[in-house]
Every structure is written in structure tokens, then in C-alpha cells.
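Q: For a teaching session next week I want to show students how multiple molecules come together into a single three-dimensional assembly. I've collected the sequence lines for a complex. Could you give me the predicted C-alpha cells for the whole thing so I can convert them for display?
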Amino acid sequence: MSGNSDWFAPRGASAEVEEGSVLSPKFDADGLLTCVATDAATGEVLMLAHMNAEALIKTITTGEAWYFSRSRKMLWRKGETSGHSQRVVEMRVDCDQDAILIKVEQMGEGACHTGRRSCFYRAVPLGPKGRGPIALEFRDAEKVFDPREVYGDRKKR
Amino acid sequence: MSGNSDWFAPRGASAEVEEGSVLSPKFDADGLLTCVATDAATGEVLMLAHMNAEALIKTITTGEAWYFSRSRKMLWRKGETSGHSQRVVEMRVDCDQDAILIKVEQMGEGACHTGRRSCFYRAVPLGPKGRGPIALEFRDAEKVFDPREVYGDRKKR
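A: Of course. Below is the structure for the complete assembly, covering every listed component.
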């Protein structure tokens, strides 16, 4: 893979970044962008993860979702352990080019390493609260696969 | 507003964080969570922004979206300049509790400070590319309001 300057334009003034038609991503201090993955068919938000330049380029060239794991500090092809890969149907970049949206076809039913379809399976109730920390409410939390069968003792991938 | 320990439980083991029913958010080194906002009616991803503990608590208690601006380093109620506020219909937290999803009713047509409905108005083409940086394709990029009228010379809010 050649240098990133083959892929990305240098960051210009904000009008250029926002209204221009050249990819000029803004990686944070750790070299990462945030990426939100949605189900291309239903629009459901499946997960949120991070991409470094290499993950972004691999996702673009292969059409499969690659991320960078902040906890494991390594590049990671979604589904490389679980088989639950993500085929990217469309990729979008946001106005200031520090966030990526991918609309994906999720293989193997679930995107979440806990066994759910989506990582967002708990609601935070709004409004005044009672004593103590906020209690979450499980929603759409049915498990679509058994994470112990899929991952064994390994961490999510 | 009292201390955050009134609102959030201390972080426990990952099984607790993932399968428990208590809000125990994981703020990053800058004290931030990532938040994705979708249109509650259509599911469209509108924008991605950040919340510190105060923004999260204000969003929960008021039912309106509050964010923390990394560039301006300040708490920010979405729409405080533009009037384009976001009424939160539902809030979700993800498996490891470092990301928030809010499904919102977007006031004033557009969430994006450039005048579009969504911040994700440009597609990144997938597959092999030609010479030079990747060219973006505008999609759903129609302006629903005139940012100069709404913001004048001020930055997005």
C-alpha cells in the first residue's frame, strides 16, 4: 500500500473540507476517525467503532468493514473471528470529515459481540430520576447468536 | 447539579457493563463519549458529536440534545443559535457504554450546519481508485436552510 497522500487530500480551509469533492479525513490525535455502521436494509444503527487510515483504506478497497481496536491497538477485520463480517453497501463522510457512516449488509445475524443484532440494546430513560444511578431498560436485546460458541474465550472480533 | 456519582455507577467488570442494567458510561481521556443522532421517524443518521458528563446529564434531564464541542471546548445545546434543536425521543447506550445513540425529532429541517438535513451528504466510492485522492459524490446534499441566514458569521450551533 502506498502512502496516504495517494488516497487523501491535505486538509484545506473548512469551506473546502465541507463543500469540496475530495476525501480529506481528519484523524484525531490517536490517528482515528469514528465510524457508525447501520444496516443497509433497515437503517438500524448496529455499532460504533473507530478506523485509522489503514482501516479506512482497506474498507474502501475491499468493500468489507475494517476497524482499529483501541483496546487491542490493532487493525481488525470485522468478523475475522466470528465470521460476522460486514459488506459495505455505501460509505459516507460527514461535513467536517472526521466521521464515517457505512451502510452494511451484516453477515451472521449479529454485529454485537454480546450476541445481539445491534450494540444499542439498552435504553436510558429520560426525565427526572429517582435515587442512585440511572437504571437501563433492555430493548431489542434478544440474542441472535451465542457468543461463547462464536468466540470461545477470545475477545470480540 | 450534584456529583456524577448520583447519576452513573462506577465501571465494573465487562460482564456487568455489558449485561447489567445500570448506566456506567466510559468517558475517554478527554472526558467524552461519542453520540450518534438519528431521525426518530426515518432512522436516517443525522450527525455524530460528543458528550461530556454534563452534556449527557442535561440531555437526559431535559430531553433535548446537548453536546460538548471539541473545537470550541464548551457545552452546547443543539440549536441554541440556529433554533434547530433536537427533541430526544429515545436514548440508547452501547454494549461497552462508550457510545450513545439518540433518536431525535429534528427541529427546523436540518441537523447539519452546512444547511443539509444530515451531515452525511457525500459518498465515498468503494473499490479500486484512479490517480490522486478519492473523489467524493454528493448525495442527498440539497440544502434545506441557508446557513448564512441562520448563523451569520457565527460558527455552527
